[in-house]
Design a protein that fits this description.
With 163 residues, the chain is α+β, with helices and mostly antiparallel strands. Helix content is 39%, strand content 14%. The chain has six helices and five strands, in the order E-E-H-E-E-E-H-H-H-H-H. The chain has a five-stranded mixed beta sheet. Strand 3 and strand 4 form a beta hairpin. The protein is globular and about 45 Å long.
Length: 163
């Protein structure tokens, strides 16, 4: 089956088995930030942004991405949004191990995009599905809050600032 989609900002067209997992297709494209870990949903090492939402690429049949944008960490790390997250994580003392980076980074990005003023409860609920191999939950939440602050400083926005 011919599957057109937008990969890291560029339209591509691939001939693939429609049931093949997006993870395997991306790795054949030499995008190795997308790792093959648990092939379930728990490790988050294969996370990508599909239509600007984090998804485990190991569970997504490639036919579902037809005509949609897919962003991998290789592309995202070149953005100002990544630098905000990186700055926030560094301020919180988070040193990602490399294995779960896509899940931690794209989940943080989704939270920043979703919540106008996230409470700790919002954050705990948004990250309830995650595992923590290189940081703990509270430090990760602090990293996200710091990333929100870094983004607001960069953009001059008060969108995520709590009063």
């Amino acid at each position: 089956m011919i599957i057109p989609f937008i990969l890291n900002g560029k339209k591509i067209v691939l001939e693939v088995d429609p049931a093949e997992k997006l993870l395997d297709v991306l790795r054949r494209q030499r995008l190795f930030s997308v790792k093959k870990g648990c092939t379930g949903v728990c490790c988050s090492s294969c996370t990508v942004l599909l239509d600007n939402k984090p998804v485990p690429s190991c569970l997504v049949p490639v036919f579902l991405v037809k005509d949609l944008p897919v962003i991998t960490l290789e592309y995202f790390i070149q953005t100002e949004n990544y630098r905000d997250i990186e700055k926030g994580f560094q301020k919180a003392g988070i040193h990602l191990c490399g294995y779960c980076n896509p899940g931690k980074i794209f989940t943080a990005w989704n939270i920043i995009q979703t919540y106008s003023r996230p409470t700790h409860r919002d954050l705990y609920e948004a990250i309830a599905h995650m595992t923590y191999c290189c940081t703990d939950r509270d430090t990760y939440i602090n990293g996200i809050l710091n990333a929100i602050q870094a983004r607001n400083e960069r953009t001059g926005s008060k969108r995520n600032v709590r009063k």
